[in-house]
Amino acid sequence: MSGQYPPQQINPRANQNSGSKVVLIVLSCVGGGLALICGCGILLGLLLPAVQAAREAARRMSCSNNIKQIGLAMHNYHSTYDSLPPAYTVDANGRPLHSWRTLLLPFIEQRALYEQIDLSKPWDDPVNLPIAQMVIPTYQCPSTVNDPSYTTYVAIVNPNGVMTGPIPTRFRDITDGLSNTIMVTEADSDLAVPWMSPTDIDLQAFLDSGSARNQGGHLGGAHSLFSDGAVKFITDSADLSLREQLINKADDSLGNAGY
Fold first, then answer.
1. CA 156, 98, 226: angle at the middle one, nearest 5?
2. Checking DSSP bridges between strand 153-157 and strand 201-202, what pairing results, if any?
3. Euclidean distance between CA atoms 198 and 65, whole angstroms
4. Which residues, in sequence order, are bridge partners of residue 77?
5. Per-domain residue ranges for the chain?
6. Backbone angles phi, psi at 171, to 5 degrees
7. For residue 207, which of 245, 252, 164 has the smallest C-alpha distance?
8. Which three-class secondary structure string do you get for 140-189?
9. What is the pTM of this model?
10. Can you list the alpha helix ranges (DSSP code H) found in 126-169?
11. CA 69/CA 75 separation, integer angstroms
12. What is the pLDDT of residue 17?
């Protein structure tokens, strides 16, 4: 008929090609997405150790700063009393009452807290226990996994060391040199103590440090505070005789290498 167009012919082959193209596009998108996910997973796996290492480096620096603050407090205490604090105070019967960490409170900007403590009663007496359970940021290593009221910053209590017990030491008693003698060290998390407790570690615990360091702390070693206020990182592999020399304050040994 005039004025009418012939019916449009449908090309089945063309429809098949269009469907195939759609399928290919979908598969390409899916494949690209999977490749992107895999790539991101691999990238994340590569970056994660670096991120963890950076975080530990920051925690280690924060820990070092805490111990430097303790060192400054020790020197200020010595300037005030002409001696370092004793490792612990005792009552009339010789019973330990309070830690050196308690005595340092006024010198780490915690005087108000210090004045609330009854020094004539034990640290865990009901009068003092609420304070003992408080968190002192300066006594907290961010790499440890302890109760926040515990600390890994401890003295090495030894008759030949800087911290001998209830008898305080003066700088002039440290004849090996302040830069060669340790005052305070950080212990592994399993040796953590309540910060107010008159409890620290002995020489053997310090000599054994690092033999099984798997309870938190820093990988490969720990910080130690020397009597001159310097903070040095003592590696777990440090020679045992060197460790003992660094504790003795008057054995005429000047070993200061091989940390």
1. 30
2. parallel
3. 23
4. none
5. 65-247
6. -60, -35
7. 245
8. CCCCCCCCCCEECEEEEECCCCCECCCCCCCHHHCCCCHHHCEEEEECCH
9. 0.77
10. 129-132
11. 10
12. 52
